[in-house]
Structures are given as C-alpha cells and as structure tokens.
Design brief:
By secondary structure, this protein is α/β, with parallel strands linked by helices. 45% of the residues lie in helices and 12% in strands.
C-alpha cells in the first residue's frame, strides 16, 4: 500500500493532475466518480493567497467527496510560499503540493514553477522551509530539468526527499520541451531505481489509456501515475486504467447516454459552484472533448456557444443524446475536432 505521510492512497494510485482552468471542483467531482485516487486543486499563486485575492482563495474550495486532495501552490519568494502553505493548511486538505513544473512563460520568468529549476539550491531551500512550516505532508510536482543541459531530476529528487517531502511527481518533459513531443520516462525510471529514494515516485506524461498506463508502470517501476490531458472530456479514464491493469482488457467506450449523463453532472456542479453565467461560459471548452469522435458535432457546438441559459443547455443535451443514439464514435487518431476548432472554442 502506497502512503503519503500516514495517508494510504492505494496500491497503485492514479492521480488527476492539477490543471489551470480544468481541474476545478466540478471536474474533480466527475473524475472522482470514476476512481481518481488523489486529486489536486488548480495551482494557486502564493502571492494571491497571502493578499487574500478572491480568485486564489476560491481555488481552495473542495468537498469531502474529493479526498484525499492536495492544495498546490507556486511562487518565487520563500517567505511568501511559507505563508501561503500555512494559509492553505487552514482549508484542511490532505496534502500541500509545491508546483515546480509549470512551464508558462509569465510564471517561469519570475523564477516560479519550472523556472526555479535554474536555481536548485533555492528550490531545496524553499521546499525545506515549506516542509518545516507545515503539519500536513508536503509533496512536489516537477519536471526532468530546465533544458537539455540541465537534466538534474535524479539529484533534485534526492535532495527534496532529504528535506522532507513525502512524495514526488515527475513530468517526463523539460521546461523547454514542447507538449507535442513525447514524454521521456527514462529519467523518471532512474529516480525510482535510485536506492536512496524511499518516498513514492509518481510518473506523468502521455498517460492516455490503459495500455500506456501498463507500459509505464511495468517499464519504469513507478509507484503510481498522474493523468493530465488524457482526462479531458474523459473522466472514465481512471476506471479504464484500473480495469486494464488488472485484466489486460480494454473497456468499451462510454455511449452517448453515459457521455450526456456525466457531462450534465459536470455542468450542474459548475452552475452550483460558479453561478449560471460563468459556468456556461467556462464549460464551453469541455464539450468537444466529451463528444469527441461524433460526426457533425460542430453544428451542436456552435449552438452551445450561443446559449446563455442553463435550462436551454440541458434541453440541447437531450437533443444531442437523441441525435447520436446508437452511434459508435470514431476512436484512435481519427479526431473530427481540428486544432483550429479547438482554438476557436477556447477563445469564445
């Protein structure tokens, strides 16, 4: 049984990644329904928390159903990170997680996220200070290194363990690696095989289905896997992975009735948490993923973009369910939603 501190998290936990503007409480809720073992909040600015900024504070919200859950914080100033960790503990999560992996330029340019990987001594000092300030177990999510000349994750993992973190999740890309490039799990395996490492080592990057999960587990020996984009419109992935790891069998894709049911729950939870107007706006980025592989969905998506009332959207979901009744969607690489469609969707 894998433990983070004194918390049992499963024999081989499957984690939902902290994703900005994605892994909010409504999305986490539907992922938990299908077996996500550990989840994290969207990453929260330490400066925002200590200023009591409304957007940052709201990200501390979670329900008991979501446990075990970690609150993830990021920042460049050590004292601000300590204060933010103490603030986050008051929300009573199970874990405090430090983000050393975000590759976004505006975060990195301030020396936060993966930007701190250019200064390993500061990375270690910050982690030690947060661990010392926290009563809860502290974990870290990070990358292989900053660039091709700085792939120092084996050393980093050891040093962070030595100052008290209770688990580490490693994304198999550098800060400079494009997300379209395949994740490199070789160094993740080296961290796990390092005999000095005693804490759980979780791997992240290209975990997209049952077969990929089995490959990463068996090839690199990690203690668990973190799912990110594989969960987009696909909260069923946690059930799929667990079933495949036990049986070697791939579950049938959820049919249109199941897709509508779960997307409706996601929508309803979003309305409860955000209010009707904001929920309808922010759910727009999810619909193409929920109905990926269904032909002519762009027609429905255009109509979704025009809807401003919750009940009207529920009625359209019923129409979608009836329209695609009995249809088996395309699978594999055949994606009828183009990148330009996705860009258009995200900017509406």
């Amino acid at each position: 049984m894998i433990r983070i501190g004194n918390k049992e998290v499963g024999e081989f936990p499957i984690l939902l990644a902290p994703m900005e503007d994605v892994s909010d409480p409504p999305f986490r809720y539907v992922c938990k329904m299908f077996g996500a073992d550990i989840m994290y909040t969207e990453f929260i600015s330490s400066e925002g928390l200590i200023r009591d900024a409304a957007k940052s504070v709201k990200k501390l919200d979670f329900s008991e159903f979501e446990r075990p859950i970690g609150i993830q914080i990021f920042g460049h100033d050590i004292q601000s990170m300590v204060s933010a960790a103490e603030y986050a503990e008051k929300a009573n999560p199970d874990i405090i997680d430090i983000n050393f992996g975000c590759p976004v330029k505006k975060v990195v340019s301030k020396g936060a996220g993966s930007g701190i990987m250019n200064d390993i001594p500061k990375m270690v000092k910050m982690t030690a200070a947060v661990v010392k300030a926290c009563k809860l177990p502290v974990t870290v999510k990070t990358r292989l290194g900053y660039d091709d000349n700085h792939k120092e994750i084996v050393e980093i993992a050891e040093r962070l363990q030595d100052v008290g973190i209770q688990a580490i999740t490693i994304h198999g890309r550098l800060r400079t690696t494009r997300s379209s490039a395949a994740a490199d799990w070789t160094l993740i395996g080296e961290v796990k095989q390092n005999q000095r490492m005693k804490i759980p080592v979780f791997g992240n990057g290209d975990v997209l289905d049952g077969p990929s999960a089995k490959y990463f587990k068996e090839t690199f020996g990690v203690d668990g896997l973190m799912v990110a984009r594989g969960s987009y419109g696909n909260p069923w992935i946690f059930r799929e992975i667990k079933h495949y790891l036990v049986t070697g069998e791939t579950l049938a894709l959820p049919d249109i009735h199941e897709r509508v049911r779960i997307s409706r729950i996601h929508l309803e939870k979003s309305v409860e948490w955000k209010g009707e107007h904001l929920a309808l706006m922010e759910m727009r980025k999810h619909w193409s993923d929920y109905f990926k592989g269904y032909p002519n969905f762009k027609v429905f998506r255009i109509r979704i973009m025009q809807i401003v009332q919750f009940q009207e959207l529920l009625a359209l979901l019923e129409e979608i369910e009836q329209y695609y009744h009995g249809y088996i969607p395309f699978t594999g690489d055949h994606d009828l939603t183009t990148e330009s469609d996705r860009d258009e969707l995200c900017h509406l």
